Amino acid sequence: MPLQPWMKLMSVDDHLIEHPRVWADRLPAKYLQRGPRIVDEPSPSGGPPIQVWHYEGKRFPAIGLNAVAGKRPEEFGVEPVRYADMIPGCYDPRARLADMDLDGVWGAANFPSFPRFAGALFTVESQDADLGLACVRAYNDFVIDEWCATAPDRFIPLIILPLWDPELCVAEIHRTAAKGARGITFPENTVPLDLPSIYTDHWDGVFSAAEETGMPLCMHFGSSGSPPATAPEAPYAVTIALYGTNSMSATAHLLFSPVFHRHPGLKVALSEGGVGWVPYLLERIDGTWQRHRWYQNVVKDVRPSDLFRKHIYGCFIDDVAGLKARHDIGVGNMTWECDYPHSDSYWPHSRAYAEKVFADIPDDEVHQIVELNTRRLFGFHDGQVDRATQAEG
User: Fold this and answer.
1) What pLDDT, in 10s, does the model give residues 365-385?
2) CB-based contacts of 359: which residues, under 8 Å, 6+ apart?
3) Helices 204-213 and 166-179, interaxial angle, to 10°?
4) Which among 206, 214, 158 has a CA at the least distance from the CA of 184?
5) Where is the signal peptide (predicted)?
6) Is the dihedral of CA 261, 267, 268, 274 positive or negative?
7) In the chain, N or C: fewer CB atoms in 10 Å?
8) pLDDT in tens, 114-159
9) HSE toward the beta carbon, residue 247, CA cutoff 13 A
């Protein structure tokens, strides 16, 4: 079987559910009542109290959005309303390690839940910028000092940013890099968050700091807060099926923008965006560039697909179509995801399922996709993999 026992599955996209004391243990006392805290509220059904996040006078009831690991598909759709409704691996890093071992997964990068995938909640919902900044820093300290410190060789630390202020973003990137951060969550599109676009110079300092620290921007689909628009009568299944189009849009923006020309060392991961669409989109983008670049405000001497292969990593869970087209995409541009504890995950059968998906692919390519590309992207190496990477490089 191509997925050999010595290959370590490294997921570039898992999720953690913040436990109730993430901010209570880290915020200054003056912020505790307005900062994120769990409140027990009466259940509408008359059952046990439900647990709800409160922040700056607002309530956020989905404490475990899509935290359905351990449930059958027939049970999906009823979101956890208490921590007791989730398996402990959702919010406890030691229990998560046990769940990863059961699943045959070695390492993982985890996105936040309550702060949203790119931490945008503290940008969108904070009335007090100082409180928002304290919340961003508290989350990052939790991820690095508590969650990832539980197993530094297995958890890849991803941070969030105070997106409302690029100078604060730069400071937070350097602060957390010194503590061991390896990646930055960043919106797939900043405009729906009422922030300047990547076509401006607004984010140049942020992108430069990411280059300097060697941290990729991890753009999870949905991180813009703008799901694909559908008909009002359409079931949510249509939105779920179309979410990869957000990653397609992000790719088009990145390749036609000045970002990679100004920042030749920047890397981007299109988290949970899939990869099967990549060959078509690159063909379409290159064709558009070939025909229309002369009168457009785009760089005219670098083919967009060349930028993609230098800067962008696609991320997928079970993209059979993408694997068939892997040489058109670039084997070195593909990474694997588990998506624990969300509904797209195959937990606790991820490794067994991956063995089927990778059954007809050569060992060296499988090893790249499930492990080596991820370690290179995040600079997250151990001695054995360093030697393997050097041998292949």
Assistant:
1) 999 999 999 999 999 997 543
2) 1, 2
3) 10
4) 158
5) none
6) positive
7) C
8) 999 999 999 999 999 999 999 999 999 999 999 999 999 999 999 9
9) 26
